[in-house]
């Protein structure tokens, strides 16, 4: 880049020149001419030829006209057009050329015919045009000059210069200042003054305009050598000075071997010396620190611009981003460089001002060399700005350098109404493409334009959420609702619904239309009434189920097991499908085909529409109909059941209850989902809450929803609360009913709840119901927290799966495997669907974060708490047993086992019974002392004489353990003298054993004396079951010392008993009978009764369990009972308690002959009694040890029950045998013997063994 410093003080002129000698000679002629004036060259009046050389003298050094470089296509054509001299040109194929004489001279029109022309020379440098040839030709034509134009080469050894200098009397075209023709002292031929208008049209008749030679330097000179720049800028030379300087340079050219730059420096120096004074050049040199415009004072030491002069200060051109300001100080004028202010810029150096940034651009900082463009999203409508204005939030610009607010437009995700309004954020559920496009609703959402409150309906919207200049008040223009699914609300313009759908969020079908799976609605037809048909079908389908249940409950069938298995598996699948539909209710973005499959499960969730039967948006009526649907089914089936009571095959009421109970338990999830569905309100983008399944119903704010809430409360009480309460009550009463006769009959009514599970897992029905209810409640309770829905649903399903695997509750292994597989499948579906979770809500994310933090904090806290509890339990031992049963094993071992069974039946207490708990006899006193809350002393006749029992009582008394006496009917307290001599009862070794445990005789005596004073509970060993259970409960009440005593369950009725237990009237045998009765009744879940008189034997009984104990065959009461059993044709099942000795053949003979005297037995009863004894004792007796541990006893009872095989089949077969024509007992035995022989040749005594096989 170059910088123009201005002219040098002398103009440069170009034109036709002539030597001064020739002009002088023409003036001295007789006919003088002024050859320095154009008028003297007019050939019409003068003959200037006579003062010039002849043409022939110059021809040898000229260039051929064909070689003239004149761009003939332009100059010559223009010459002809201006002068009309076409004869002086040749028009050829190659273009226009000058027409020359002798190939070197172009003759002007004034002398072309006579060839009496004077020479005029010009030069042509190699590669350049002929010097001003066109101007010479025009002037010759316009002023009638008789000249001949010739062209000579002009270069370093110029022919042109040689010719002019050697011939002298010629006219030539050149310029000044120049010393090239100094020898001839040239003069310019004067022409009319410069005519600007003519020259503008390329008419060159007047004098050429003088030019002013300028000084051009590098633009970096101001920074590199500012003083030099000032020197050059001040330097002014006259024409005489220039010519003199050029002459010195010209004279030095040969000396410097024609080095023009060297000769120029030499000539300049010679000229300066020749002046002899500094008056000319000294003003050129700038003063130190005196800066001029465009410069500023610069400190060399500090390397920065300064504001005052100094020794190290020089003048430097102001750099870009600064401008020069003139100032005055004590030394005179100078200048400093100031930075451009913010909003101004200066890209050049040596500037005297800064320019303001134009609109759309800005300069953020001072000293800016250029202005930055306003970035996208900003604009600037003013000049000289230091920053751009941000477009309002949500707006951006199309490009850079926006200079008006109107360049701001909405970015994607924002919208506006009107060109002058700001943009609003796109509501959730809508798509806003930006710019001026209106928002559109996304699939799955429905939006409508809210009403605008304005004074003039013709006024366009100009603002959103503000008061416009026109007085219009605007609110949010769009209200967005979330639809039930994407099919009902397709993407498109606002208020777009699927075909034939209407209402808020497209939630209803048009009147007379029914909903379809594709989201549309079609005109109602017969197919659309399927909800009504479904209810009728369910009602009708339950009728055969009730009949089938009645048949199964009244008559055993081997197909019952298959039916039970199929119904069990089907029920599990139905429950699973309802759980799957509950998962479908979670806030997940389901995709096809999974979405279509889940939508089809609405029938299992009772999510039915009645749009063909009800007007649109009749939500309350529809909900009430759903609540009454099942009661209607119950009523219809109840009427049908009543009709069967009049038929030959009446269906029992228990069958009716079981079918509906099974139906309710299986559909608990669906019923609960239906009940709480109006409470399943989810948030919409507009902030309102709507029912998830009915998005056109606004929650909480509308009167209809408030009415629904009332009905929901009724529905919750009528369905989930009532059902779960009933199940909890039945589960709680199950253990009591199981051991009572009345309860067994009641349990037949509730087989739907307990028959599906193993007896010890009877409570799993309650666990399953709580699980199903929780699954139904989660979508409604956590509708605002989708992430918690998935997490808690997974925890619930996983907990149920773990409980099912650990408990293995179902009666059939296949059902257990199927349930585990279904639960695992639900868990897998939930895990796979979790990425589809809608978790955009910040509140949900925060809730999940808090929940995760709590879990991560609780995990170590739980571990620390457990460790602390274990350590605390070690350091602070607590009573392990609620009560310790102190008893004499031979006299009360069976009674204590019965005591423990009754306690388990009514209360949750851990009792110590040595046969169950004791591993080391030496620890028994430590257990009493440290691990027992109270000591129950079962006082029988021999108890106080037993060493270990005495030690237990003394230990409890010594360590202040509460003692509760249980007085049996054979016990009597010793007097004071007996207590004083109590040590005589035990041997020396026994007393030593007691002493080794820290128990002295005085401790025992003190304990016995204290025992006499304690209030106790009486228990008569021959009391009824209710009375003995009541005594046990009194003891347990004394142990707990709190709350009302539990009511004793009613004993089973002997008339309904299917199994009888027969024992002798000995005390321990009676207790053993009660034990067997309780355990068999629990195992078989059928009424079992302890028969103690012949009147207790009814033909309704199928089996009699006889406990063979010592002395039973000599018991008259047992003999009478056995004979009654024979008369009633009840099958016998003998059980040996280990104390029974089988008699020999002579015993039967004595009984047969009446020689064995049994008090109370008539002599004629001997033969039938002998046959009864023989029939009883010929059957293999299974062991039953009442004194054994509970584990052994349970296995023995299992073996006894296995004798019955398939209970229902055995009962049916036994009933058929008893009802066969009422034959005598002997005939009956013969028939049974023949039947058994057909089976395998068995003896009559083995009848029951065959009957009880599976």
UniProtKB/TrEMBL annotation:
Gene3D superfamilies: Tumor Necrosis Factor Receptor, subunit A, domain 2. SMART domains: Ephrin_rec_like. The lineage of its organism: Eukaryota, Sar, Alveolata, Dinophyceae, Suessiales. This is Tyrosine-protein kinase ephrin type A/B receptor-like domain-containing protein. Residues 366-405 form the Tyrosine-protein kinase ephrin type A/B receptor-like domain. Coiled coil: none annotated. InterPro entries: Growth_fac_rcpt_cys_sf (IPR009030), Toll_tir_struct_dom_sf (IPR035897), Tyr-kin_ephrin_A/B_rcpt-like (IPR011641). The chain crosses the membrane at residues 529-553, 560-580, 623-643, 655-676, 708-730, 762-782, 820-837, 849-873. Keywords: Membrane, Transmembrane, Transmembrane helix. It holds the Pfam family Ephrin_rec_like.
